[in-house]
Write a structure and sequence with these properties.
The complex is a heterodimer of chains A (about 260) and B (about 500). Chain A is an alpha/beta fold and about 260 residues long. Chain A has a single domain, classed as TIM Barrel (Alpha-Beta Barrel). Chain A has helices spanning about 85-90, 110-125, 140-145, 160-165, 170-185, 200-215, 245-255; strands at about 20-30, 40-45, 80, 100-105, 130, 150-155, 185-195, 220-225, 260-264. Chain A has a 9-stranded mixed sheet with strand order 3-1-2-4-5-6-7-8-9. In chain A, β8 (about 220-225), α7 and β9 form a beta-alpha-beta unit. Chain A is globular. The two termini of chain A are about 20 Å apart. Chain B has about 500 residues and is an alpha/beta fold. Chain B has a domain at about 65-230. In chain B, the strands form 4 sheets. A 7-stranded mixed sheet of chain B has the order 3-4-5-6-13-12-16. In chain B, strands 1, 2, 9, 10 and 11 form a 5-stranded mixed sheet that branches. Chain B has a two-stranded antiparallel ribbon with strand order 7-8. In chain B, α5 (about 85-95) packs parallel to α7 (about 125-140), α8 runs parallel beside α9 (about 185-200) and α9 (about 185-200) packs across α18. The chains are: A alpha/beta (about 260), B alpha/beta (about 500). The complex binds iron/sulfur cluster. Iron/sulfur cluster binds next to loops of chain A.
Chain lengths: ~260, ~500
């Protein structure tokens, strides 16, 4: 995790008006794996899903109280920050960045802040990708869609019951977002974590690829091997998928109409 | 054992390596240089070190032939006519390489290969075959990775072929630099270079703007990157490279003020005097400039030859005198580091070598990459391995030093293998680094066979072969193996 300098000017915003603040889990100043090129990654705190294989379980709970200080006197993460503070924190490394990626937790849990951050970042010359679980209805947030460079959408499972079993939440909004973002051209990448036994991966991959094709989307479909490192203890014994399965799913996605398939 | 006999009987040396070793022993049996007792004391203490240049310099350490001129005029001495097609051009260059001396016995500069070969690229398939064979022959016959070729800043078909073939062949030789200029180098070409670097640890990125401006200020319209990352004028070279080991100098000073006021000026004076003596012998006694066909045919000119004032171990010197502040992390340490380099740079600028005319006899500063026997001494102005900050912070902390070293300074970064899926990320970092004032940026993927040791490249598989007691074709393999053990170069922080 990156340790960024403590932001100063903590009380940004016009006098008298409470500045909008986001709950920030952490900030990475550089990343090769969160979209094209080198990007700073802003992790927003809080997620309403409860995925079995979540790799960032510490970013799930929403924080409400003002977080405390660490023993060394620095403010601990997560923090409340304005979008200006987030951008000034990555500003020192501006020369290296192609853009930012806003993720979580779930960034759609804080839509006003997400919108403001994307707008301010764009104004500063840093286009922002939104990495989301699709729980927020983006059609209802045209400001976010307009400000974003694109979306990376997680599709955990196609079947609603499977989705509920896997995440504790239904997927009507996710599927709606898939159609909407794919059709509008805002979808940069669709992703599914392949965890054998937790859901019907073949049905999910096939249906999702067909949906991409129907919408005429050129988004790439990334199939991600489940990896036990970092997940909660109860799920660590879950076996990662073998190469044969990943290859089969990759071929299935291509056959079903995905424009580009990547396996990681 | 007698060192001559030991060299002859060494099972882990090739014939060529023995020959070079025997020549070195012969040269070092002479004592023709006049070295003052104070300078000799510093040499004995390892403070001043000529990096095995030998006791009787008979060729410039680094020779940078004017290959453009050679391609235009051929060579009367070699009996080579100006080439008319890609086969003649590659053959002519290979012939000349055989006759370009240097400290390593092999050429340290092969030319700006894209610009040299582009006029002969007519049919892509034929050019691919010719350049492929050319690169293969270079790797197999120039058995030393202090051998450097340059490409860029503009995209050419030849440049693209060189990158593609380097990626396919996965050879350690030649070392390769892309001269990068954000206005002249197209994005897709730079991206191909980044993707290639993640496979084979080359090319490195040189700031064409910074090098170009520095050499223009000395009156040259062009420059070459040779050996590790040394910037030198084309058609000339460097008579010598002597380095000041700042880590070893640290105990000579009581504190930072004493260092700056007394110790540094004295050490610089002794090193400059020692360099002058080496240059004197080369220029006045050795006969190189009177006899070499390279000079007679105008491929090397005495007025384009300089000398390189090298240094290593800034980090250790700063850490010794910065009152507990850490080099690469604390602003106070950085301020001391900059004061040291500024004052050395002034001392070097105020000195003029009476035997050189280039740049009015002033030597060029060089952040030396170290030698394989260095232990606990960081190359040039680098942040010690194991103490490296986060990637962009590391670059920003290193950048201020780069301005002082026209004849070379560079930082090397190891990347997570996953970076290969996103070469644009490496390109973004390289571009940001150069825009932030870095003169030279190198990267490799942590799982690659070809890795950058300090400035030069070595194949891990060759190091393993040598660890089994077998000879390795490249003489740099042995250096790489020792550097892996002594400098921990493969323990660089891995960047994701
Ligand atoms: S949506 Fe993401 S952050 Fe939320 S629980 Fe699932 S994996 Fe974790």
């Amino acid at each position: 995790m990156a340790d960024t300098p403590d932001a100063t000017a903590a009380q940004g915003g016009p006098a008298g008006e409470a500045p909008l603040r986001g709950r920030i889990a952490k900030i990475l100043n550089t990343s090769a794996v969160d979209g094209p090129g080198n990007r700073a990654v802003i992790f927003l705190q809080g997620c309403s899903f409860d995925c079995a294989y979540c790799h960032n379980p510490e970013t799930r709970p929403a924080i409400t109280a003002k977080p405390g200080l660490r023993p060394d006197g620095k403010e601990a993460w997560p923090r409340w920050m304005t979008s200006g503070q987030v951008l000034s924190s990555v500003g020192r490394y501006r020369a290296f960045l192609r853009g930012i990626t806003v993720t979580g937790g779930e960034c759609g849990e804080q839509p006003e802040f997400l919108q403001e951050l994307l707008r301010d970042a764009r104004a500063a010359g840093l286009p922002g990708l939104v990495d989301t679980n699709g729980s927020l209805d983006y059609e209802a947030w045209p400001g976010i869609v307009a400000a974003a460079e694109g979306f990376m959408l997680d599709l955990k499972a196609w079947d609603t019951d499977e989705h509920r079993a896997l995440t504790g939440a239904g997927n009507a909004s996710v599927l709606k977002n898939l159609d909407f973002l794919a059709a509008s051209g805002a979808l940069y990448e669709l992703r599914t974590v392949i965890a054998p036994g937790l859901f019907d991966a073949e049905a999910t991959v096939r249906n999702a690829s067909e949906a991409l094709a129907r919408a005429g989307s050129k988004a790439r479909y990334k199939l991600i091997r489940f990896r036990p490192q970092g997940v909660r203890a109860a799920w660590r014994s879950l076996p990662p998928p073998d190469d044969a399965l990943m290859e089969r799913l990759s071929a299935l996605a291509a056959d079903s109409g995905a424009a580009e398939v990547v396996v990681v | 054992m007698n060192p001559i006999l030991a060299t002859i009987e060494d099972r882990a040396l090739t014939y060529q390596q023995k020959l070079a070793g025997l020549a070195r022993l012969a040269e070092n049996s002479l004592s023709v240089l006049t070295v003052t007792p104070e300078a000799q004391a510093y040499r004995d203490a390892g403070v001043i070190c000529d990096l095995f240049e030998g006791e009787a310099p008979y060729r410039p350490r680094y020779i940078v032939p004017d290959y453009e001129r050679f391609i235009k005029q051929g060579s009367a001495f070699l009996g080579v006519a100006p080439p008319t097609d890609i086969w003649e051009a590659t053959a002519a260059l290979l012939i000349l390489y055989r006759h370009v001396p240097s400290i390593t016995t092999f050429p340290v500069y092969l030319g700006d290969l894209d610009a040299l070969l582009e006029p002969f690229v007519r049919d892509e398939a034929e050019a691919r075959k010719a350049i492929g064979l050319f690169l293969l022959q270079i790797d197999r016959t120039i058995n030393d990775s202090f051998c450097h070729a340059d490409i860029g800043p503009r995209e050419t078909q030849a440049g693209r072929l060189i990158l593609e073939l380097s990626r396919e062949q996965k050879n350690a030789v030649p070392n390769l630099t892309l001269k990068y200029d954000p206005e002249l180098t197209p994005e897709p070409f730079a991206e191909l270079a980044a993707a290639t670097a993640l496979e084979v640890a080359k090319p490195s990125f040189a700031s064409h703007r910074i090098f170009g401006a520095d050499f223009r200020a000395m009156g040259f319209d062009d420059y070459a990157i040779v050996s590790c990352y040394n910037g030198l004028p084309k058609g000339g070279g460097s008579a010598t490279l002597v380095r000041l080991n700042l880590a070893r100098l640290a105990p000579y000073a009581k504190d930072a003020e004493d260092l700056l006021a007394r110790v540094l000026p004295e050490a610089a004076r002794l090193q400059l005097g020692y360099m002058d003596e080496r240059v004197r012998f080369l220029v006045r006694e050795s006969g190189f400039f009177e006899s070499s066909f390279l000079v007679k045919e105008g491929l090397v000119r005495a007025d384009r030859v300089t000398g390189m004032f090298g240094l290593v171990g800034l980090a250790e010197l700063v850490n010794a005198h910065a009152g507990g502040k850490r080099f690469g992390h604390d602003d106070e340490a950085e301020a001391l580091g900059l004061r040291i380099i500024e004052s050395l740079s002034e001392l070097v600028r105020d000195h003029s070598c009476p035997y050189l005319t280039m740049n009015e006899g002033r030597y060029l500063m060089h952040a030396q990459v170290g030698i394989d026997s260095d232990s606990g001494i960081s190359p040039g102005c680098r942040i010690p391995i194991g103490d490296e900050p986060e990637l962009p912070e590391h670059i920003l902390r290193s950048a201020p030093y780069h301005a002082f070293f026209p004849s070379g300074i560079g930082d090397v970064f190891a990347f997570e293998p996953t970076a290969k899926a996103n070469p644009r990320q490496l390109l973004d970092i390289a571009k940001g680094a150069l825009a932030s004032g870095l003169r030279y940026f190198s990267a490799y993927a942590a799982d690659a066979d070809v890795v950058r040791i300090t400035g030069y490249l070595v194949k891990r598989s060759e190091i393993e072969r040598m660890n089994r007691g077998e000879a390795s074709l490249q003489d740099t393999t042995a250096l790489g193996r020792n550097a892996v053990n002594n400098l921990g170069v493969l323990e660089r922080r891995i960047r994701s």
